[in-house]
Specification:
The chain is of the alpha+beta class and about 70 residues long. It is built from three helices and three strands, in the order αβααββ. β2 and β3 form a beta hairpin. The relative contact order is 0.20.
Length: about 70
């Protein structure tokens, strides 16, 4: 983890590396509390981020389509 990376760059790197991204991992790995805002900004930049809701608690998991490349 590069400490000079922005929050958006941290999440983008995790998504491209196919690491799990949700509000829990964003906070524990990068101390990010407004993940949905970062996801919106990435979508506005053209990233086709897919949202999957966990049944029972509504936790959103974010990922990129399997064969998509930046």
């Amino acid at each position: 983890m590069n400490p000079k990376q922005t929050q958006l760059e941290h999440i983008k790197a995790d998504l491209v590396a196919r690491k799990p991204v949700n509000s829990v991992t964003a906070f524990t790995d990068h101390y990010i509390t407004r993940l949905s805002s970062i996801i919106k900004r990435l979508r506005d930049k053209g990233y086709p981020i897919v949202t999957t809701l966990e049944h029972g608690n509504g936790l959103a998991h974010y990922s990129l389509p399997e064969h998509w490349q930046p």
